Structure formats: structure tokens, C-alpha cells
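Q: I'm writing up a methods section and want to include an example of the input and output format. Could you take the sequence below and give the corresponding predicted C-alpha cells, formatted cleanly so I can copy it straight into the document?
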Amino acid sequence: MSYGKRDDDTGEVGLFYHLDKTVVLQEARAFNDTPISARKCRLLLTKIIYLLYLGEPFATKEATDLFFNVIKLFQSKDTSLRQMMYLVIKELSKTAEDVIMVTQSLIKDIQSKQETIYRANAIRALCLITDPSMIQGIERILKASIVDKTPSVSSAALVSSYHLYGVAKDIVRRWSNEVQEAVHAKSSSGFASAASSYMSSFGGAADKSNVVISASNITQYHALGLLYQIRQHDRMAVAKLVQAFAGGRSGGILGGGGSPLKNPAAVCLLIRYACKVMEDDPSATRRMYELLEGFLRHRSDMVNLEAARAICEIPDMSSKELYPAISVLQLFLSSPKPTLRFAAIRILNKLAQSKPAVVSPCNLDIENLITDQNRSVATFAITTLLKTGNEASVDRLMKQISGFMGEISDEFKVIVVDAIRSLCLKFPAKQVVMLTFLSGVLRDEGGYDFKKAVVEAIFDMIKFIPESKDTALSYLCEFIEDCEFTKLSVRILHVLGVEGPKTTTPTKFIRYIYNRVILENSIVRAAAVSALAKFGVNVEDPLVKKSVHVLLTRCLDDTDDEVRDRATLYLTFMDHTDLAKRFVKDDATFALPTLEHQLVEYLNNPLGNDQEFDLQNIPVISKAQEEEERRRLRTQDITAGPTLATPSTAQPGTPATPSTPGAPAAGVSSLDQQAMYAEKLSAIPEFATFGPLFKSSSKPVELTESETEYVVHCVKHTYLNHIVFQFNCTNTLNDQLLESVEMLMQPEIDDCGLVQVASIAAEKLEYNVTGVLYLAFQKEQADEFPVVSFTNTLKFVVKDCDPTTGEPDPEGYEDEYQVEDVEVLTSDYIRPTYISSFAEEWEPLAENEAIETFALDKEKAPSLKAACVAIMDLLGMQALEDTALPKSSNVHTLLLAGIFVGGSKVLARCRMTFSNTTGVAFELAVRSDDTVISQIVLSAIA
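A: Here is the clean output for your methods example:
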């Protein structure tokens, strides 16, 4: 049947062109005709589906009338018409009223033994129109359908149950036995034959055995997904599920090893659950690795790839343990199927980022893929070789890439450029070749993302390879002469302003910058004025200063306000050296998340106008840290390169990783986390009078092992006169409910200088749901800073509950649980800060110096780098001028800065030496605004 028609005036026009909803509703009367015209009704149902697909709004009355007209088609025996009818019923049920009236007709179709094709469609429609409160009424029907011998019926019931789980967890959990039976059930030969015939109609003489395996056993995939959904909150049950369906070490081989899973998709799902088990329980890694290794010998390519990917993603795997997976992937590199080659090279590409030496044995096979007809495969091959190749192969690879770049899209060009950027930093000696290549592709045609990637790569070379700075800046100057992207021009001008004055011949860049003032739009002109000003401020040559002053004076006549304002501002800076030093040369800035939060609090505080805003409570960071923070925010949701689709939340069985409240989230910086803590604590009435938050622990302290029945982490929050302890507690027992949960803290000495003033308990701790407890202590003396250790006991009321339903017993009993001690250290009173010039800040504080000599044995500090980390942790201060990483293995000077609670600046200089026999010996000098504070900080080491 053709759905197209010919119009002599307009040419070929689709049947649904300018389809009108009103006309369709009028045509719906055809559903009442006797006898029913199957062809006419199918066409009408198709129009309705098309309107719904376009988002055409149906009023409730319209949808209801149409719904009851459509269900009159139940009397038709036409198979295609009935299938279209089920589809329309499901879509209209979202808007129509009284749809429950069609339940009996659907149940009749489900129980019909003659027309099997109706049953699966009827199950899906029934589950969609049934109200969650009425699921029990159809529970018997769904349980019977789950174990039905017809695969299509069983799959429909399983998938519908999966979607029902969100609204009827307790009911679906009761079907666990039926779902388990569906996993083990064997498919009927009739369906297998039908599936084979159907697939053969598309593939001709296809491999029918594979068709039967992939199609007839799909019920196992759906059943396994639902079974995991039911058990996902019980880690032990999930581990047993994986162990049971894996069928032993060699159970991954199809048809052997005792595994009941015959469907490759189900086996892939099982592999993902095994990865989830390893993630939740690291002690199970060895056992799961053996199972995954067995799946490498499965007869399905899909399973082989999934198992290899899972093994390659296990952290801390040795080369020997990765070898079986690498061997399988190496075989797929020479496969005639492009999909297998793509999947294999993509997995190897990702592994090469962290372990290039493991992938390097495959380089010969990977080189053969450079000329692959599939450009996606060739791109991944090139980037993998860039990560695994040695310095001698760089020149040859760059020649191959040069002829390759014109044949791929911008998306893949970005991947190649990112790989080259990594290679630049890996082999700095090859910077000339790579910089020449990057400058060449910068002149080629391309979009913004591609040009941005190239510019970013050149920026990194300027930052990390000083020898390339002059040449790289020259290439960037040439690029902005003909750059069509304003954002890139502004960024390049900024880099020229920062790095240009530091070069040996800064004057050669001024001409390029001033050309932008003459030729570009107002945004670029403003950026060029700022860049020019930095030459005038930072270059000591008086002739350069005079020239820049003249150029900026000319900018005072610009037509744009911002350009004129910037020129005026920077001319003032050039005339007043002290202003230039403070606002242009100073590399320090405030942490914007904390500044914003405290400004909002200040404005919202009714008493805020009576007091000045205190900048002492705002952390100070470097401009480089600020730029890194901005880059993190720009890129935290972006993944490099194309990726294969992963199962969505609608697909059965996709493991989800729950987040832990109170713990730093992935991708959240310490400054953002500090602002989040401050906002959360300020909303608690008991802490409202404590003042602004001074500091929070950078990482929660683990007070229990992750495998224990109760998992507890502690975060310390320091105020001017108070310390707040935040305990994040998780109950990992699914057969217990904890109520009236509180933490008892007892100092090791009675007169410790801290008095408890507040305690906030949790009403209950449900299974796998994190609760938060708070305890607050106040200092007895404002000028004292106690260092004390607390013993901690978790106290609660235990109520046993049903693991399946979660219903607790009415009666409970009191219990306690001892956790690790918590220490208040000197570092809790110090917040790391940044200063741009350590020497200038250090000298004026000479009168308040405290100095002493210490030693660290070789076990505690096996190197100067380890000693630096230990000292920074003990003092809670920030390393300055790149002194956190020693450049010598024998002698080093560590420079530190911090703010002591109350606002006093603290600086420390640590001169250290390393000996292979005695370890690290160091002299620590501390200076601050107060001699007492210097002594307190010095005592943190002792």
C-alpha cells in the first residue's frame, strides 16, 4: 500500500503534508462503520500517530472521545489493524479519561491462546493504562506472562515490569522467582524459526544459528535486567547473581561451563554487573577478573569486546593480567568487519592514555589501520600510535598525519590535535616538528572547535615548553591577522599580553596587537588595548613604555566606550607604578565561589549594614588557579572524541552509581565544595550565630572500613570560635532500620579547651541512604587553639525489617557502634592562601619568626617530594612558586603561605636535604603577624 499521492501542480507531496487535527477527528467516525474497513482505519490510525509524534496537543475531551472510538476496533480480526490500535491506545491513554474501561478487553487478548501476536501488545498497553494503585489486580496475569513459553509475551511482561518497578517496587519484588525462571527458560523452536526466517529475509544466506541465539533468547536479557533492578540495593545478592549466571571460570563459552545465558546481550549485561560488583567491593576484583577472562573465549564477538573493555578498565591491572584482553583486541584489529575494528581500536585508544606500554605491542597492527577506509577507525589508529609511539617514530607519524588531516571531519581533527598536544608534552625535543604541523593546520579550513583545539595545543606548548615560546607566539600573531572567530582572537591577545613581555624581543609582537586595534571589532579592540597595556607595564625598556603610551593615547578617540575606558585606565596605571603593581602585576585574586556566597550572606543579613564586609574570610588563589577552575567548568561535561552509545536509563539492567550526600561530588573543586558546605551550614539555626565559615576539610576522613555494616565519614568545619563535626553515616544492612541516630564524642583529656554546644541527630538511617549528624564545640578561650583527639561512638535504636519490603518491626532495641578517633590538629586552624611575591611578604615579618630543625626518617619520607607532601598536610598551607615539586633530588626549599583563623597571615620556609641513609632533614622557619601564632604553627610538626 502506497501512502504517497501525485499532485500535478505541486509535484510529489506526502499524504501527511499539512495534516489537520480537526479533519482527522472528523474522519475518526470511520471506526464506527459496519463492516470495518481495515485499510481505511489503518491509514487513519497512522495519521493520529503522526499528529502525536509532531506534538499536536489533544484536549482531554478530544483524546477521550477518540480513545473510545479507537477501542471499537477490538471487534476487527485484522492483525495489522489491531497492532496499530494498541499503539494508539498507549499514546492516547496519557491524556484521555476513563481509559481503565478497556482493561477487560486487554485481559481477554492476553489470555487468548489463538491469536498469540495480540498478547505481547496487549500486555504493554495494559501496564501503561493501569493505575499504580491497581497493579495488584493484574499481578496474577503479569506473573503468568513472565514465565510464558512464548518469548514475545514473556519479554513484553518483563519490560513492562521493569517500567512498573518505579511506581510499584514492593509488588514487582515479589516476582523474583518468576523472573529467575524466565532467565533459565528455553525458547520455543517456533519463535526461533520465525526469527531466523525474518532475519534471513534481510540477510539472504545469513548464519541462522547466530540469528536464533541473538533473537530467540532475548528474554534472558530482559529478565536479567529486571532481576538486577530488584536486587540492586543488596550488594551481596548482586554478587551472587553474577556468580550464578557466569557458570564458572570457563562459563563464558557459549554452550558450555554451565551458564544458562545463551543470549550475547544478556552476557554483556552480566559483565557490566560484574564491573559494578568490583566497583562496590574491591576485594572481589580477583574473582570477577577470572570470570571476565572466561568470557574472552565466548563465541560471540560482542561478548569478547565487552569482556576485554571491562578488563582494560579495571584499575591497577598488571601487564600480565591485561595480556589476554589485549590479545583478543589485537585479533579484532584485522577483522573484515569495520564495527569490530572500530570497537577494538577505541578500547586500545582509551587504555593507551594510562598504559601506553601495554598497547605498544599492537602498534604494527594499528599502523595497518591508518589507511583504513573507515575514517573513524583511521583516526583512532593515528591517535593511539601518537600515545604509544616512541620519540624516533614521531617524524614518520607526523608525515602520515599531514596527508591524513584533509580527509577527515572537524570532529576527528580535534581528536588528532588533542593526541598531538599530549605528544608535545611527552617529547619536548620534537617541539619544532609539532609546532610546524600545528601552525600548518591552523591555516587550513575548519570550524571553531577545531581551531580552538589547535590554539589550546599551542598554548600548552608555550606554558610547558619554554623553548617554543617565541616561535609559538609568532604563529599565533600570524593567525589573528586573518582569524574569523572573535573568542579565539581575544584569548590569543590575552596570551600575547601575558607571555609577550617575558620574551627576549617583546617589541615584535606590539605591531600585531596594535593592528587589531585598527582593523577589528570593538570586542577584539578592547582585548588588544589590555594586551598593549601589559607590555607598557611589564617591559622595563623606557622606549617601549613610551611607544605603548603613545598607542594607548590614540585609543582614547575610539568609537567604543569600553575601548576608551580601558585605554584611560591603563594609561593611569602606567603613570602610577603602585597601582600597576597592585592591579596588573599582582598574580593573586579572590576565590569567586566563596566571595559570591559571603557577599550574598552579607546583603541578606539585616545586621550586615552595621559592619564592614570582611575580606579576610575570602580565600586567595592565583590567577592560574582561577583560569584552571574556569577551564574545569567549561570541560567537565565534555568528553573527547566520539563514543559508542551506552544503555540509557530506560534500558533494562543498567547499573547506576548512587551519589553520597555530604561527600565531594565528581568534578567539584575544593573551592566549590567549601561554598556548598558554607551554604548548607548557614541554613542550620544552631550554627547561624557562629559567623562565617573559615575552613572545611578538603576530604572526608574515613572512620570505618567501606565493607563494614555502618560506614562513617567525618568532615571538620572551623569557625572563629567554634568547630563543627559533620558525620556522614550510611547503613549498609538491608534488614535493619536505625532510628534516633546520634554521635557521642568524648575528648581524651577532660580539660581540652573545647565545650560541646550543639548536637543534631538523624531521625533514621534507611538502607543505603546516607544521613548526616552534626556536633558543635566552642573554644573556652578565644585566644587558644586546642589540639585534641576525640573518641567517637555511634548510638542508635535498631529495628529489624523485611529486606524485601523494607517494613520495620514496631519494637526496637538500643545499640552502639565504636568508630575511629577524630583529631583536631593545628592545620584545621590554617587555610591555604596564595601570594604573588613570597620575598616581599616574608621580609617585613622577620620580628615574629619561629625556627627549628626537624628530621623525617626514610620510611616516612622516601624522597623530597614525599616530604613536601607530608609537611603541607601537617601545616595545611599552600605551596608557592612551584616549590611543591622539587627539581633536585638532594636539596630543596619549600615556600608555604596560609591564613590563620582570625585573619593573621602565616608564611613558612622549609629548607630540606635528602640522604639515602638518614632520610630528610629540614629547617622550618615560620613568620606571621604574631609571634605566638608562629610558635603554634611550628609546633604542628613536632
